[in-house]
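Example record used in the benchmark description.
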Amino acid sequence: MEKKVKAIGLFSGGLDSVLAAALMRKQGVEVIGLLVRTGFAAFREISNEERTDISDVAETLGITLRVADIRDTYWQTLLYPQYGYGKHMNPCMDCHLHMIRTAANVMREEKADFVFTGEVVGQRPKSQLSHQMNIILRESGIEDRLLRPLSALRLKPTIPEKEGWIDRSQLKGFYGRQRGPQLQLAKELGVEHLAVAAGGNCFLINEDFSRRFKDLLDQYGKEDFPKHEVPLLRIGRHFRISPGAKIVINRDEKEHEMLQAFKSGHYVFELLDVIGASGIGSGPFRERDMELAARLLSRYSKALPGQSVRVRVTYEENDVEMHVLPMEKKDPLIDKLRI
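Model output (structure tokens):
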């Protein structure tokens, strides 16, 4: 009886991972798609038509979907990257190597034959240049059992190709950041409507998020970094009030609702007399810090020029009310405080 080949594919639901899985299925490979959660990627899991999520994509492709949650172990990778950061706080090389090693463990658990990814040579400058891909190949622990179907013709043959499990001639030699070849292949394979938003949503390559993350890192250091504060970095306007205190101010009603989840353990700033924003403060706040934060918060209100505003500040079981004059909208201090 002919051997049934099984493979583990890193699967984000993005175009490249869908194409790689489709190429493997076309060759009769049993595929387990592995969705790796680091805690720093926004898997909306909904297609452009808002009717297809990642599990639906996997089902349509005829693959099994498995989720690996590496959020706890990923912190070591993020804070102490062997290969450093990219333009922002993105440790792309270390991140991808962590994912490959996770897939390698799943490969062993599932008694699969190899791992594949949707990587394209030259597509991402911090993890997908040829020499970087070779480093990942060498340090993955599975070496020649790591296949990149979309760029295989530009790389050395792997065990799946050498052993005849995979027909190398049916693989691709894509290169660079252009998307035309992938879009054409998607049409040929009939999967052009399957891909959902995925890989490009890593928060760590976002300039604003990374700047706020680094601000916390500078304040607390790596050993005392407040991991529970990370979800807050994606919400609102952030201002550094003092070396030890910052405030997050919502921009709209949706963000106001989101901030409510962070009331516990934080300072809560609320306007009492006028319609406006709300704020969540990370302390410790001194009295002058609270006053400055209150003036900043009331700037984002419907207060009239020169109108004194009442602001309530609540922390755990304690609260205080203060009357403050809002900062003027063009006060240069606002930009100095903004993170």
